[in-house]
Amino acid sequence: MPLSFSLPFLTKSSAPRVEGWLAVAPRADRVDLAHVMPRPGGLPELVLLESYATGGDLGGALARLRKERRLAGYRCTALLGSGDYQILQVEAPNVPDTELRDALRWQIKDMLAYPVEEATLDVLEIPGQQGSGRPRQVMAVVASNAVLAPVIRAFHQAGLNLEAIDIPDVGQRNIAALAEQDGRALAALAFDGDGGLLTITAKGELYVSRRIDVTWQALAAATDERREQLFERIVLEVQRTLDTFDRQYSYVPMGGLLLLAVPEAETLRAALAPNVYVPVEVMDLSAALDFPKVPELRVTERQAQCLKLIGAALRQ
C-alpha cells in the first residue's frame, strides 16, 4: 500500500501528465529530484537524478525548476526527512476502517510531543494477520502540520502537482520489493547521513522498519577497530529484529537479508552471514533498475544519498 498523507489541500494540476512519479526531497539548503519511468515487462528506468541549491527559498527554487525543467506535467511526491515524522506500531482499535484514523488519533495522542490536533496521520496496514491469534497491529505514520504545511505551501507557490507525501521507510520498501522472490520476506539494510534503516517487506508490503544509530559517514571513515565496533552494533540490531519478526510473523517465511547502500559492504556481509539464519547478499542496483542516464549512481555514496528518494519515485 503506497503511503499518501490524506490532505485536502494537496494540489491537483490539469497539465498533461508525464509517466511515472517525480520524487522531491526538500532539505535545509537544497532540493533533490528523482524521476522513474515505469517500463512494463522491463526494469523501471531512472531518467532524472539531480540536486539544486535552494538558498533557503524552497518555493522559489521549485518555481524556477518548474520552468527550467518543465515540471508542470509531473505527478510529484514529497519525501520527508527522517526527523519529520514518527512511525508508531500500535494495536488497531476495534472500529470500522472508516473510523480507524480518528480512533488512532486518540490512541496515540500521549505518544506525541505536540497536540494531536496539530498532527496529520496515515495508516500502513500490516497484512496477513488474520488467524494469527494476536490483536491486529497497524503502523500509524504521524507528522506535525507545522512540518507539512511549509512543504505543501512551497509546491503550491511553484504551481507543481503535489499528489502524495512519502517517508524514507516506504521508499526503501519500494526498492526492496524489486528484489523480492518466491513470496518470501526480505530484510533490507541501508545507510545514509541520517543513519541506518532496516526494513522487512513481503509481497511489496512493509512489515518492519527499524532505525540504527550508525551513519554512512561513520562507517566510511572508521578505523578497522572502530568499524568492528560499529559492525557489532549492527549485527546485534539485525539479529534482534529478525528474531522478533520470526516470532511475530511466523506465517511469513524469511528469504534473506539484502545490503542496499553500505560502505565496506562485503566486509559487513562477512560479519553478518555467520550470525543470522538467512542468506546475506549485497544488492546490485543495476539488476533491479536501469539508469543509463545517471552513471554516478554506480558510486555507493551516491546510492546512499538518493536510494530512498529513488524508492519514492517508484511508487505505484
How would you explain this protein's 3D organization?
The protein has 316 residues and is an alpha/beta fold. It folds into 3 domains: 21-81 and 147-168, ATPase, nucleotide binding domain (Nucleotidyltransferase, domain 5, 2-Layer Sandwich); 86-145, Dna Ligase, domain 1, CATH 3.30.1490; 180-282, 2-Layer Sandwich (Nucleotidyltransferase, domain 5), CATH 3.30.420.40. The protein is 31% helix and 28% strand. It is built from 8 helices and 13 strands. It has helices at 58-68, 100-108, 145-158, 168-177, 216-221, 224-248, 265-272, 300-313; strands at residues 21-26, 30-37, 45-53, 75-79, 86-91, 119-125, 137-144, 161-166, 185-192, 195-202, 205-212, 254-261, 280-282. Strands 3-2-1-4-8 form a 5-stranded mixed beta sheet, sandwiched between helices. It is globular, with a radius of gyration of 20 Å. The relative contact order is 0.18. The mean pLDDT is 91.
Quick description:
With 316 residues, the protein is an alpha/beta fold.
Mean pLDDT: 91
Number of helices: 8
Portion of residues in beta strands equals 25-35%
- Rg from alpha-carbon coordinates: 20 Å
The low-confidence parts are none
| Tally of structural domains | 3
Sequence of secondary-structure elements: EEEHEEHEEHEHEEEHHEHEH
Summing up helix and strand content along with how strands pair, one would put the structural category as alpha/beta
Shape: globular
The CATH fourth-level homologous superfamily of the largest domain: ATPase, nucleotide binding domain
What distinguishing features does this structure have?
316 residues, alpha/beta, Nucleotidyltransferase, domain 5, Dna Ligase, domain 1, 5-stranded mixed β-sheet, 8 helices, globular
